Amino acid sequence: MIKAEGLTKIFGSATAVDSLDFEVPKGELFAFLGPNGSGKSTTIRMLMGLLEPTGGSVEILGEEMRLDKTELKKRISFVPDTPDIIGKLSGREYLNFVAGVYGMQQEEYERELEYFLDFFDLEGRLDTLVENYSHGMRQKLVIIGALMHHPDIVFLDEPTVGLDPKSNRNLKNYLRAYTAAGHTVFLTTHTLSLAEEIADRILIIYQGVARNSGTLDELRAVAGKPDASLEDVFLELTEGG
Amino acid sequence: MIRFILGVEMRSMINYMKTLSDAKKVVYGLLAAVIALFILPSVVSVLSLKILGAGEEGLGGFMLLLSLAAVLLLTLLAVNSIIKEMFMDRNIQLYLTFPVSPAALFAAKFIRQWLINTALIMGALGIITGVLFSMREGQWLLTVTHIFYFLLLSIVAMSLAYGLVFAVTKVLPANKVSEVLSFLGGISFVLVYGVLLVGGSSVQDISGSLPDASFLYSGFLYNFNPAGGLAGIVVSAALAAVLVILLRSFVVHAFKSGWVGEQSVKRRNRDASADAASPVRTLVQKDMRMTLRDFKEWAVLLPQYLLPGVMIFIMYTNPAAIEGGGSMHDERMIAVSVAGTIVISLFAGAYNTARDAAHFEFLKIMPVKPADLVKAKYLFNIMTITPVYLLAAVVAWMLLPVSTAAFLYSSLFIILVSLAVIPAGMFAGSMQPVVSRKNPAKRLDTATNVILSVIMGVLLIAAGFISVSFARGDGGLDHSLIAIVLSVLAVSAGASMLFLRAVRKRYEKGFNIIYKD
Predict the structure, then answer these.
(1) Is B96 in Cβ contact with A80 (below 8 Å)?
(2) Domain closes at, from B262, B293, B323
């Protein structure tokens, strides 16, 4: 589903991402972890086609990823780390736009909208301009936009920032069920407990270089801490404890 | 897909209109009235004079000059809007995460920006010149050829603006690009000043010195003949199409190569030293660094800083612009010093104080007394206004036929006026500052902006009268009147501490901040 080979990005004289290789199969929830400035956002932008790699390649759903492949882009979606919304729109206008560009049928759109509004407690707030929303409400709106058309792959960059506990739990459960239904989730987060709870596999990137990857138990074994939390394992593998 | 994007952009614009405050609606209404009642008639009458009254030999040069000026001005004005959409709103990156092709995104953005930024103005200009040339030659098809020609120019202006934006992104870090280009867009007012300075009488000289452009325009825009008109229309349409196609491929390539983030490597600053300075000194340094590091800060106040230069030029090159005429060099120098210092002190005082709104909570939680905040701001304003204007006065004294006495008086006026007026500017800036994430240079609420602009306009007009009032009957300086005014200003400088006290109270209570977007 997602395949990166020798993925490299160099800005000037600084290497942001260095020869990254990984593969995420269908139905997996893949957590991509790393400290600030380690190259996570650069990688995710290259996977989405927003940034041209200096070297290596990206394959999404068996095709080389390019910005002009709109049919391929209809099968994926992205939740950015800051929930910016295009223009000065109300929540409903934003979702109408998303439904339009993803080619959703009216009936399907209405059904999904009803489901997600209830899911995130947003009923009655959709006709307010997004600029008047709180950070959490914007985040919910962006997540709804990314999930309501059921993409094969969803890229989530820090999706739980600003979400209330109930929405947080709902999202976790949803993502679990989503991957169980055969969809793929690529998640970056600093909330290691979230990754520990729901990730099938984890890749740790440090200073642009892939450090370790595997299931949590495999990472624990590499770190020599069989009963440790992901937080301990992560710190051991990135900072040497 | 273009339809969806244009739909969203349109919806966004309608929502913007709907949520305008009453004050803003009034300002926009006034602006529209000024354009309709003053600017448009002025443009029409100037063009009528030039087009209907000129001999055929000057028409080519005049059209070339008009085209160059219009393209240059609209290019610089369009830069701001392109920067805002491409860099500051993060719209492009978001759009591109959707199933939208870069080409469709470019097309939608370009159509909207073109219509709003250049096509509207160029179209109007084309209609005006077309009708005037039609009247001159009795050939109404000239209106059509002029519209085609000016629409081509609108595409040229957009292409240049895009080219400028994208070229700069290649040589500068992305976070600096918006500052530099906003600065360029901001200084487009220089062209307006340029038009003022050049004056109507010089147009003939300039157009005469330009290369003969009659081979471009004759038959197409004047001396109409069907073959020339048709060829001009076809060439204009073809050139416009080629420009748009080239631009599309250029911009799409830039989208694909991730141009926004391409240069975003941050330099690591390993300097962790902190001066063990007083809070006031630290705050002044903070303001100084914020100003020097950000071109947008320069752009905000540059028009006001340069205004005295323009006033001097107008006064010394156009005796008719000033009541009394004659050789009142000394009086004019003093008048410009007074009026210019009032304008910059008000604007800079207001803008620099309103800047604190963006990080007001941070300032409040710091262990700094509000009195120190005000003192630091006052010092910063003095440091960035008074020496600059004193230096300008020295330059003017060296270049212009001004006596030493007038120079000394001007220097005293600059010092006293800045001391007296800066607190008033700070008071205005702390009244209802604006914080806008998308447009950080917008710092004052509409009412304050209007008031300050009106004061600036009045002072521009009043500068002439000030110089007359400082002149004696025999043409010399009225020393006793000047001494009286200087004394009043000295007292005012002391009394203006009342404004500073009011500003301090606002720092204590908290600013009444308007948050935009």
Answers:
(1) no
(2) B262
Nearest CA in chain B to A14: B265
B100 CB near a chain A CB, below 8 Å?
A: yes
Q: Domain ends where: B231, B262, B293?
A: B262
**pLDDT tens per residue across span B69-124:** 889 888 877 877 777 777 666 678 888 889 988 899 889 989 999 999 999 999 99
Q: How far is A91 from chain B (nearest CA, A)?
A: 12
The radius of gyration of chain B's CA atoms, rounded to the nearest angstrom, is 26
Q: Which residues of A touch B265 (CB under 8 A)?
A: 11-12, 14, 16
- Cβ contact (<8 Å) for B97 and A78? yes
Whether residues B248 and B287 share a domain: the answer is no
Per-residue pLDDT tens for B176-219?
Answer: 665 665 666 555 555 555 555 555 555 566 666 666 777 888 88
How far are the Cα atoms of A145, A231, B348, B410, B423 from residue B495, in angstroms, in the given order?
59, 62, 20, 21, 10
The boundaries of the domain holding residue B186 are 2-13+20-262
Q: Is the ipTM of this complex over 0.90?
A: no
Is B305 inside a domain boundary?
A: yes
- Domains of chain A in sequence order: 1-75+155-241 (3.40.50.300), 81-150 (no CATH)
Pair type for strands B434-436 and B514-516: parallel
Partners of B249 in beta bridges:
none
Number of folded domains that form chain B:
2
CB B358 within 8 A of CB B435: yes
Whether the CB of A50 is below 8 Å from some CB of chain B: the reply is yes
Nearest to A173 by CA among A147, A139, A201: A147
In the stretch 210-239 of chain A, residues with CB closer than 8 A to chain B read none
Tell me how close the Cα of B5 comes to any Cα of chain A, in angstroms: 8
